[in-house]
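Protein Record: Sequence and Backbone Structure Tokens
======================================================

Structure line: whole-number tokens from a learned vocabulary of local backbone shapes, matched to residues.

Purpose: to set a sequence beside its fold so the mapping can be learned.

___
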Amino acid sequence: MIRDIVIQGYKSFHPTTPVTITLETATQKPVFFYGLNGAGKTAIGEVVHGCDIGDAEFHACRMETTQGGPFRYLVYNHHFVQSVIGEAEGMPGIFTIGELDTETQRQIEEHEHSLQDVRDTREAAQRDITRINGELATALNDAKDAVWTVYKAHDKGTFDSFLTGYGRGAQKFFDDLRNYETPDDEALDDLDSLAKRLADISGEETSKGTHHFTLGAFSAIEKDSVWKERVEVSGESRLAPLVEKLGNGDWLSKGRALVHDDQCPFCQQGLPHDFLDELAKLLDGDRQQKIDLIDAHIAAYESAIQTLETSVDRALAEPLSQETDLKATWDAVHALLKANLATMRLKQVSPSESMEIAPVDLQPMQDSLSALNTRIDAFNQRIQNKDTERHAIREAFWKIMCRDRLDVYRAYDARIAPLNQQRAEAQTTDREAGTLEAGHVGALTELRKKQEGVDASVASINERLKALGIDSFLIARKPGEGSLYCLERPAHGESSAQSLSEGEKTLISFLYFIELLKGSRQQGAAVDIGRTIVVIDDPVSSLSHNFVYDIASMICHELIKPPGGQKLRQIIVLTHNLFFLHELVYQIAGRNLAKAGDKCQLMRVVKSEHSHVVPMDARDFANDYDALWHVMQDAKAGLVRIQVVPNTMRCILENFFAFTGNTKQFEEILQQLSAEDGAFRPLERFLNRGSHRDETNIAHVDWSQFDIAYYLAKLEAVFQAAGHPDHYRLKMGLTEP
């Protein structure tokens, strides 16, 4: 079914702003358009036909349909009448089904019923597919929006160069990001590390040198047994027993340096003549060698510390060291080395004391140094091949973004999984039903070929003409012309179709159109009533009133509500004839106009500067008189041109005063208003129909010189003077004062 008709730049419709006409498709109820001549009704039917055949003139217009297509479109309008009646060589024949035998008819009916069931199944499946596709699209949009947040978080940031090309590609970003999904247990760099690596290759820095620490000297010194050994005085001196007893060998060694002129530095008394010799025997020799060893160890240990301090300072000056624990391990090792050095100096002061020198574990320092050198090597490798490094950083960055949004992807997968399964099932149903549909259509085509011909259409049209009381002409096969029809008049034989009156042309072309709905102009062509959409534009133009009812009855009882037959997919009727519209509505919906909207869709075509379409209530147009008042209401709302207002006013007033029998009062009121307002005189003469009986008094006035407020004020003044102000307010839809 047609869901929307979009018209732009065609005839009276706006050249740049599209007008969308939305039709109800929930049920197969007909659509009736009403509008005055020139409002733009005919353009609607022409757009349907033009879009169907792909006419370039309608490139800015389009039709949007529901599922169940492709559809067959048949449009009855003046072009169709011309194509039928205007053929000089004769009317094209319509290949329809003639009389069928009982068995063939039974088979056709079975296939038609089965075909309808299959199509109902297909339409239901396609509706499900459309609904599911909508839900899938919503799920995708929700997921894309959630994933897009990680793009926005990094856009114009440190890594924005890795997002180039995705600024307007949320779908591409959504698809590409998922390609970087990693296992949950895979370790990823953090963004700070990636930023540092990116900065490395973005700068102009050259290769860095690695670092080396000299650590071997410490262990040998720390392990020497001299630190634990008690360095005692020599036993060769006669002073040894006493010194050993007093335990003051270290004190005596310090005092030795203070001796001058054989005088004791402590008691200031003279020393025995051989005391210094005995003291030398006591302190020199093996003891002195050990003391010298201690001094040498201390000097070497302190020098090694200073050397290491210098090396470490250089290493810590390297920014990459901040990525290692070198500073922490150095602080710990340095403190231990300093503590050992202090202990060694105590041993130097008191050699006779046993000291414990703790071995310093230098492996953490070595490990930190290795970590630093590893980073330096990696840095050197990065700057040597910047393109490879940039690619690696980009990949790592996208992996981080993907992991950040991984919950969104997993929630999306869980959401669409059942929908995809449902869609697959619906698609399978649609395919299987499509196969069955093709089988039924093929079978029907073959069955109908058995008795196909143009004679059935000829007989049907002639029967309809007789039923309408027309016996002045009929339709016949054109002699020797195969499938062409011609017009025949009794006692005259073949006659030109151009001899028909306009009303007769309308009538015969419409009967031809009715037959064409169930047939085809091409022999052997498949006719699918269930997929046929019909647009009928003013089929009662030029017809006398007695035929208006007949045409309305054909449309309602043969097309809209066919007795037991297959229904057309959609019927659209356009008319300017209010009586014809009423007949359609009454025959479809009954006399309860308030409920007419349940049986048919009513639309109104109006034109001010451009045409547009508005909904219509069946109660708005009870008769032609009401229709005139609606023109005035439309003019007040700016929906019609002001030039139509004076003539509408005249029709309203003529109808009102003729019905009330007060035409004399009408003339008096107009004269009174002219006396009060000189500008009203041209309008007075126009409204007074009597003035138009004299062709010399025809008023040529630019009616746009007055605005709508002036016209309405004068119309209200006429009813006020006639004593019927409430009638004016009622018809204009105004509330009571």
Remarks:
- The radius of gyration is 55 Å.
- The first helix runs from residue 41 to 53.
